Amino acid sequence: MRFNIVIPFYKNYDTIEHLLLSIEDQDYRDFDVTIVIDGPDEKAQKQLEGYLEDGKFKFNFHLEVLPKNSGASAARNFGAKMAV
Predict the structure, then answer these.
(1) Which residue in 47, 64, 69, 75 has its CB near the most CB atoms, within 10 A?
(2) CB 9 within 8 A of CB 36
(3) Which residues partner with 32 through β-bridges?
């Protein structure tokens, strides 16, 4: 069974890399990661797109951006809909 891990992101620039490293450190590999940036955030987008371009992580992850800040639950729900 394939899983999708949804991560709502809002200005946690210092911790997102540690979170992704922790996910990568898991033995289970049948998953994708969807990161939903909660509202336009150029700094976050550049940081996360840099990880995608560098191939820094050995798992698939997708990046989505909400058009406005709507809160963590809205970001999670959006990511869950994208995973279906």
Answers:
(1) 75
(2) yes
(3) 4
The residues facing 8 across adjacent strands are 36
How many C-beta atoms surround the C-beta of residue 75 within 10 A? Answer: 25
8 vs 5: CA distance, rounded Å: 10
Has this prediction a pTM greater than 0.85?
yes
- CB within 8 A of 54, min separation 6: which ones? none
Structure confidence by residue, pLDDT tens digits, 3-52: 999 999 999 999 999 999 999 999 999 999 999 999 999 999 999 999 88
- Provide the terminal-to-terminal Cα distance of the chain, rounded to the nearest Å: 13
Tokens of 16: 């997102």
Query: Cα separations (Å) of 40 from 36, 44, 46?
Result: 10, 9, 11
